[in-house]
Amino acid sequence: ADVNLQTKTGWIPMHFAVNTGLLELVELLNSHGGRADIVNEWMKTPLDSAKERKNEEMLEILKRRPRSMPF
């Protein structure tokens, strides 16, 4: 399955995980190539949302990208 598949409004699973505060899901998506740099209909990335929420633990997970993956 494509962990970065977008809805019609540009949301990806990582947007939903970050916006609902599901750390374990963010970790799982991140480990399977979930991106934090895809914008949704509001021109926000999952990383933007984590920053707005000042969720340091989530930010650390999102910044922990395998070197072979873009960010």
What attributes characterize this protein structure?
single chain; mainly alpha; 4 helices; 0% strand
Helix/strand-derived category reads: mainly alpha
Low-pLDDT ranges: none
Number of strands: 0
Helical content stands at: 40-55%
Portion in strands: under 5%
The Cα radius of gyration reads 11 Å
Series of secondary-structure elements, N-terminal to C-terminal: HHHH
Shape: globular
* Number of helices, counting only DSSP H or I runs of 4 residues or more: 4
Rounded mean pLDDT is: 91
Ends: how far apart? 20 Å
Sheet bearing the most strands, described? none
Structure description:
The protein has four helices and no strands. With 71 residues, the protein is mainly alpha-helical. Helix 1 runs antiparallel to helix 2 (23-31) and helix 2 packs parallel to helix 4 (56-63). The longest helix has 9 residues, at 23-31. It is globular, with a radius of gyration of 11 Å. The protein starts with 12 loop residues before the first helix and ends in an 8-residue tail after the last helix. The relative contact order is 0.21.
Structural topology:
Elements: H1 13-19, H2 23-31, H3 46-52, H4 56-63
Helix pairs in contact: 1-2, 1-3, 2-4
What's a quick, concise take on this entry?
The chain has four helices and no strands.
